[in-house]
Amino acid sequence: MRGLRDRAILVTGAASGIGQATCERLVAEGARVALVDRDQARLDEVGAALGRQGATAVTLAADVSREDAVRAAVARAVAALGGLYGVVTSAGIFRQGDRQRVADVDLETFERTLAVNLTGTFLVVRSALPHVVAQRGSIVTIASTAALRAHGMGAGYTASKGGVVALTRLVAEQYGPNGVRANCICPGATDTPMTGGVWRDPARAPDIARAIPLGRVAQPEEIASAACFLLSDDASYLNGQIIPVDGGTTVR
């Protein structure tokens, strides 16, 4: 992809799943990466693996729902990488308590989910924006097809991801004149640690596959490739777009 080599990119949720896959793809494209995650042990493992490949990879342990932690992580990333061209906000949660009807979801579950998925996205984008504006860079947020169509469960998750979509559009409109592009990926069913292997359950896999035109769930690398494309110069005229990467599920 054009324009990723030597560019500094910050990725949240970088210790696993889509975030980890995004860091790996960015490094393969020659980018320098700041990895942010609250799982220090996994973060160290991923960072060390990238370092063994000769990559410039800075690991920063932080809870994205905490304003002070986000501000410090972004400042450290900028200092270590000499600026910041792009951001991918991949940190997210889906709590077990959210897997029920709206009337049965407790407030703590709802608020914590919004704190990580939506407030966390806002805090990272807000802290990064002055640096991204300086380089006329790119922001990629990660929402979900839950923001576009009902999944059946997840009041907090659905509301938070819908908020990410709306926030991304606002950033695109406000900062487009500054040369900043902001786009949102809405992954469909993706086999990540957050989903706990549910897509590989033999009892459910056939029904899941039938619901997806491509007949299978995504791998994290497939979402990561879309994120890297949006960061690259190959997507230089894409701004404010909400892109389902879902094997065609949302066409139904």
What does this protein look like?
By secondary structure, the protein is α/β, with parallel strands linked by helices. The chain has a single domain, classed as Rossmann fold (3-Layer(aba) Sandwich). 42% of the residues lie in helices and 14% in strands. It is built from seven helices and seven strands. A seven-stranded parallel β-sheet has the order 3-2-1-4-5-6-7, with helices on both faces. Strand 1 (8-12), helix 1 (17-28) and strand 2 form a beta-alpha-beta unit. 49% of the residues are buried.
Furnish the topology, listing elements before pairings.
Elements: E1 8-12, H1 17-28, E2 32-37, H2 40-52, E3 57-61, H3 67-81, E4 86-89, H4 107-134, E5 138-142, H5 155-175, E6 181-187, H6 205-210, H7 220-231, E7 242-245
Parallel strand pairs: 1-2, 1-4, 2-3, 4-5, 5-6, 6-7
Helix pairs in contact: 1-7, 3-4, 4-5
